[in-house]
Amino acid sequence: MNRRNFLTLFSVSLFVSCSPILFAASYAAKPKLKSKYRKWISVGTVEELDKTGQILKEESSLGAILVIGTSKSKNLVAVNPTCTHLGCTVDWEAEENIFLCPCHASEFTTDGKVQNGPAAKPLSTYEARILLNTVMVRPV
Ligand code: FES
């Protein structure tokens, strides 16, 4: 084997052995798909929110969404109201400032954390804002 053949064979071997690493590195460098799912979606109007202090959208591309607050609220609260125990829809208890499950009385704080079981996992939360006359949410 002459020098030229040796270098050619060495180069091909090096390329083949490094291909999986190069492929993995290029895949990791791509923008994360998660950003695709962080788009804001509309859940209702400001008038609807101000009327009762909440909007429940039972079906959306993100799942169920319950937004609490009014147009004058400093921060809107938005959660997936599906109880993590057995799937009932939680209610907002404004006087106690909690989400209460009507089925087995699990309680969740405004940031979705379990305050009292039997539920063990928190509610999913969303980021919420008002844009012009529309209440918008997106995953946290
Ligand atoms: S389904 Fe909510 S506490 Fe059981």
Principal-axes geometry comes out as elongated
- Give the CATH topology of the largest domain: Rieske Iron-sulfur Protein
User: Number of DSSP helices?
Assistant: 2
Question: Would you list the SSEs in sequence order as H and E?
Answer: HEHEEEEEEEEE
**How is the quaternary structure best described?**
single chain
Q: Which architecture of the largest domain does the CATH hierarchy give at level 2?
A: 3-layer Sandwich
Q: How many strand elements?
A: 10
Distance between the termini: 61 Å
- Return the domain count: 2
Bound molecules: FE2/S2 (inorganic) cluster
**Strand order within the widest sheet?**
1-10-9-4-3-2
Approximate helicity band? 10-25%
CATH class of the largest domain: Mainly Beta
Unreliable parts = none
Rg on CA atoms, Å: 25 Å
Q: Mind describing the biggest β-sheet?
A: 6 strands, antiparallel
Arithmetic mean pLDDT: 85
- The chain-level structural class is alpha+beta
Could you list some keywords that capture this structure?
140 residues, four-stranded antiparallel sheet, 2 helices, 24% helix
